[in-house]
Amino acid sequence: VQLQASGGGSVQAGGSPRLSCAASVSIAGMSVLGWYRQSPGKQRELVGIITSGGGSNYADSVKGRFTISRDNAKNTVYLQMNNLNAEDTGVYYCNVHPRPWQSYWGQGTLVTVSS
Question: Is 89 helix (H, G, I), strand (E, B) or coil?
């Protein structure tokens, strides 16, 4: 499984970029798709997940600002980020679980928020 993340870059505070993660295989049967991020000097943390049924959960720090969605037809999972602030700066990674015991990571895409 290969995952290609895109959509990162330099963003002004308050901006609303959308990250994409395209998978090399079908994601339709994957129960959990997720986005993580690693900010400077911090450990990688969960941003949010989306289930096969469309349910989602988010870290408290992004709840109400970020939205994860999935397009099974395009084998792509998205992360819509709104009202960014400096603390959202980091490398964002997508993660998929084709089977419960399997975990694959994308290469990461850097988001830098400037004021």
Answer: coil
Q: Please state, in angstroms and rounded to a whole number, the distance separating the CA atoms of residues 61 and 38.
A: 13
Handedness of CA 64, 93, 53, 23 (dihedral sign): positive
Contacts with 5 (C-beta within 8 Å, 6 or more apart), sequence order: 19, 20, 21, 92, 93, 94, 106, 107, 108, 109
**Kind plus residue range of the DSSP H or E element containing 33:** strand 32-38
Task: State how far the Cα of 74 lies from the Cα of 39, in Å rounded to an integer.
Answer: 29
How many other C-beta atoms are found inside a 10 Å radius of the C-beta of residue 9? Answer: 11
Give exposure, 12-40, as e/b (b: 16+ Cβ within 10 Å).
eeebebebbbbbeeebeebeebbbbbeee
Tokens 């419960």 belong to 100
pLDDT of residue 31: 85
pLDDT at residue 115, rounded to an integer: 87
Q: In the structure, what pLDDT confidence band is assigned to residue 29 with cuts at 50, 70 and 90?
A: confident
Residue 92: beta bridge partners? 37, 109
24 secondary structure, DSSP code: S
